[in-house]
Every structure is written in C-alpha cells, then in structure tokens.
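Q: What does the assembled structure look like for these inputs?
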Amino acid sequence: MMNLYVISGVTGMTGNELARQIVKDGHTVLGFDNFFASSIQTVEDLLGKEAFCFYEYDLNCQEQMERLREEVLSRKDDFQQLIYINCAAVVHTEHFYHVNSTFETNVLGMKKFLDQAISLKADIYINCSTSEVYSMNSWNEDGGVAEEDFIVLANAEHSQRTSYATGKLMTEFFMKDAVLEKKIKGCSIRFANVYSKNERYPKHIIPHILIQLKEKGKVELLENSKVNCRTFLHNEDSCSAVLALCKSEEALDGSVYNVATDEEISIVNLVKLCGEKMGLDNPEIIFQGYRASDPERRLLSTKKLRDRTDWAPKIDLNQGIEMCVKEMGCGRHD
Ligand SMILES: NC(=O)c1ccc[n+]([C@@H]2O[C@H](COP(=O)([O-])OP(=O)(O)OC[C@H]3O[C@@H](n4cnc5c(N)ncnc54)[C@H](O)[C@@H]3O)[C@@H](O)[C@H]2O)c1
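A:
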C-alpha cells in the first residue's frame, strides 16, 4: 500500500524535489506553499498528476491549515502511512537577521504543523532544522562536527543572524519531545548548503557566482570568502536522505541528523570550478564587505545518518556544477 505525504513549502528547493521523488515512487503528495520564496513553476511537471495536489496556503493561516487538516482526514485511510514533512521556512541569509519574520513561520509554524500531524495520528514528522545551529564551532578535524557535539553560539552581542539558528534549534526540542512522549515518530535534519540546478536565488553562493560570471565575467564576494570553505549538497541527494530517514525505523527516534557531504571546497576554488565549467579561465574576484560571526569552515559528520540508513550522496560537486551551468545555458558548449 502507498503512503500519503503532506509537505509544507512544497514549491521550495527541498519541497519540490521531495515531491518529485515521492510521486516517482508511486506515493501521493498533498503540498502547499504561500510563494514567499518560490513559484508554481518549480512543480509544473507534477501539476495535473493524480498523485500530486497543490494548495496555495500559508502555514500561519489558521483557516487554511484547518482546510488542509480536513482534506488529509478525508484521505488518510486510503494509505498505509501518513507522513508530514515541514519544509516551509523563512530562510536565506537576508532573512536570518530578522527575528520577527523568522520566528512566526520557523518556530510557531513548525509547532502548529507538528500539532496537526499528531492530531491526525500521523506516523512520521520530519523537521527541517539547519547546520547554522553549529554557529561558531561548525567544523573539527575529526571527520566534521557531530550531532551530539556541544554548540558554541554567536549571540545577540555578536550578530542578529543567530536568531534564525536559535529558532531552528528550538524546533529540534519540540520534535524530540513529541517522540519521547510517544505522540509521533520523526527526527530533525540539519542540512548544510543545499543547492539545486533550478535555483535562481542570487543570495545563495552557487547561483550568485554563476549569475555574476554569466552577466559580468567576474564575481563580487565578501572578504570572508578569501578564507571560507564549505561543502555543498545537491538537492536530489538531500531529498533522498530525507526519504531514507523516513524508511528507517531506527532513525525516527526524535533526534537530529546531519545531512551533508564531506567534499569541502574553498569559495575561491568554487569560483574557479564554476568558471572552468563556463569556459572562463581563472575569473576575477572582487572582495568587498564583511559578515560578522561567519565560521570559516562548515564540515559536518554524517556518520549517524550513514549508520542508520543506506544513504550516500550520488552527485559530486563537479557534476552538480555542470548540471547548474547546463540548466542556465552558460556552459562552454552553449
Ligand atoms: N537550502 C539549504 O541549504 C538549507 C540549509 C539548512 C536548512 N534548510 C532548511 O530546509 C528547509 C527547506 O529549505 P529550502 O532550501 O527548500 O528553502 P526554500 O526557501 O527554497 O523553501 C522554503 C519554502 O517555504 C515557503 N514558505 C515560507 N513561508 C511559508 C508560509 N508561511 N507558508 C507556506 N509556505 C511558506 C517558501 O515560499 C518556500 O517555497 C527549511 O526549513 C530550511 O530552513 C535549508
């Protein structure tokens, strides 16, 4: 028998690819989004399929969430499992600094969506947290920072940016509490730097670099980028990790899972790689501006995820950048 997935933020980068993989496996998705940071275009290929229903709803609108609840209630008995995945969030660096705008959706919205899942006796709830919670200690030389490591947070004395991370951290406690109280099964996920070939949001580093190289042949970066290194995970891989966790009874213990790669690259070399794929040799970088409380490295251990699921990433950065460049039509051969 097939499962029913209810996905918030379904037209976002994670939501739309999750829906695609779920529908491909023969399951059904009820998804909604308020288009705060996305558009219906991302799920155009799914619209019209019986297994995919889209609603233009806002997670913070009580009446719309009640309508969603009624819809799920009327359909859930036709399915083996009812699975809630909360992808809706006020995310991206420009919003990280605005505690009022992130709190309502990321914390209260997550909690209300969890309460709905529990009230409908859903089997599983997946909470999307973030690797931003690692804040100033987001790497180590011992295979990367692990879920159980203590966290050293930048705080309001340093940067309002941390308000996004602390809100997400709070959601991990709601998730754990619900599982400990035996109300539902589930877990939280700390994603690190997910990207997608369809992404057009220029605040994310990969589209930012590609768009600037395409339009100007050079790229502007913050001073931080002279030293910063990051890992980047393709959204097809981040979504297959979410689904692998859903299938692992052992993983749904209310705890937290890092979802990332260990393929680390400096931002300077990332620009070179993007340039190479576009046929630009060693493109010019202009460094200006500085971001406080930005860790130089973010390297996550995924041992816990790999121990409890059969997940492994399939798309390395080389392939992933090639996919992005091809999609943008700015490659060597375009
Ligand atoms: N992409 C990353 O690198 C990354 C890293 C860490 C954590 N995350 C987390 O993963 C989850 C998914 O992120 P994403 O990359 O897909 O982001 P995204 O911005 O692409 O998707 C989020 C979606 O939520 C929608 N949304 C926002 N407010 C809403 C509301 N009130 N009601 C309904 N929909 C609403 C947006 O329109 C958007 O489509 C988020 O919780 C995010 O915090 C992502």
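The chain has a mean pLDDT of 95.
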